[in-house]
Amino acid sequence: MVEFIPLLMFLVVCLVLMAGYPVALSLSGTALLFALVGFATGTFDMAFLHALPNRLFGTIKNTTLIAVPLFVFMGVMLEKSRLAEDLLESMADLLKGFRSGLGLSVVLVGTLLAASTGIVGATVVTMGLMSLPTMLKRGYSSSQATGIICATGTLGQIIPPSIALVLLGDILSSAYQQAQLSMGVFTPKVVSIGDLFVGAIIPGLILVMLYCLYVILFVRPEAPAEGDDERRVQGLSRAMLNLLPPIFLIVAVLGSILSGAATPTEAAGVGAFGSTLLALFKRQLSLGRLREVAQSTTEVTSMVFLILIGAAVFSLVFRGFGGEELVEQFLTGLPGGLVGATILVMLVIFLLGFVLDFIEITFVVVPIVGPVLLAMGLDPVWLGIMIAINLQTSFLTPPFGFALFYLRGVAPASVETADMYRGVIPFIVIQLFLMLMLSVWPALATWLPGLIYN
Amino acid sequence: MKIVSLTISTIDRITDMTGRMVSWLTLVMVLVTMVTVVLRYYFESGSIALQESITYLHGLVFMLGIAFTLQRGGHVRVDIFYRGFSPSGKALVDLIGGLLFLLPVSLLIFFFSWDYVAASWAIGETSEERSGIAAIYLLKTLLLLMPATLLLQGVAEILKNALVLMGKPVNTPLQVEPHPIEPRI
Prior knowledge:
By secondary structure, chain A is an all-alpha fold. Chain A is built from 20 helices and no strands. The radius of gyration of chain B is 20 Å and the shape is elongated.
């Protein structure tokens, strides 16, 4: 009976989370209560918790994680300097001739925004506020319009430089070390955040291409795209002026990481500085706005790190109850071996994605299942990309997908929730198709990192 | 009653002031990172102390920002049901969570870190790098400051929620605007 306490703990945490108290504290608090009961009944050794300060200090000292506040700073700065609005206007003007021009420009701008800010909630809400009314006015059905916005908004998970990939890369790299040590490899290979960024490029581009293809082939606005627009069309040069700076910023950040010239942390710092300059040149920077950006950055960063701290408490208790062995025995004993274990883990992560955020899943679930799967022979980059796409799909899937909630919050009442559910279905199919492609051809994720880093 | 509201507003002020101050350090982090990059790639020089200072800034921001984020409701929740609760329903969840989770977890981190931090102070622990910042013990002290500030703000939140449930919500001088959207990543 005692050996199933970790399982019970996991189920209780899931239930407790539903009440809505902050995730980080619910996680660690529930674990602590279990530890105390275990201590009182002699089934838990408090010595496991003595590793806590060292672990927490490891988080403070971890230089890779410094990329988090810097990327957040960059994203918040770009978001607050009205970059998105200008981008969308310019892109729509450039694609005016196309029949599905507006839809296509929403996908492309969403991709740029996702890449530069990497914050899903912000991207969906911004796009929803800016482009949904226009799309509806131009004759897009509400299901098509909302589907496009939700799907594009979640691209921030996967398109590098993404904060989600930074966190995932950090966790996977230690999971990979642990897996190799357990196999007796004492000169372990490493996997870095750079590897994940590079690995995400091809799958990310395929995803965007498939989205565009879908919009071109299947999305037909009822009203003609031209003629009814009262806004004066900007010149091509003006449009370019709006488009180039953010593109340049993304390319500079990504390029410096990929070429090995800068660490992700340094690149994030340069990106944050660049976004501040960009806001300054656009005359969008004031002391008040700078304070807003700094405070938002502090809040988001503290939120992320408190989850990391809460997850550390949870995982120590989980380990103290023998949870890691339990998971390992279970996963290695599954029929179907590695394939069976991978499918099961992906399914669990997909379902958890309905209630938990990328951060919680990365910090709680990946450290537990990651070492086992990697020791069974999975490629760490492939695993990281699959988890990222899987979660992105989960965030899109009705009725619990986060993206849907965000858009619902800003969509006009005339848009039925059922329309939104219908609208995202094609995109979910595209996502599943990409995961299938990645399973059949893992090289889509692993080829480019191998090429660049070897 | 007066004591309670005075306690709440005092704690709120302390947390708010701390949070606002460490917030500016994010900007300093950006600038210092930029400087180290420029030094390294254009002047081929660098200072280990300068690089380590980013770690110190980062630690200060997220460890001392945690209480500030609690005050502003920035810690992410699973709000599928919570969102639909009445104000007193929300207050009840937050009250129970505060007593059952926040207080014990803060105390756990504080007391389990005590010896670890004290040992570092006792030897005046310095950086592993020779030219690094010779104050690891100060950095480690964050392991005590974080739970202490979180506990303090936690007490204020518990009192606020208790007052809401008693039908006497307080008007703190610092009315923070609720988030338009949660800053999910």
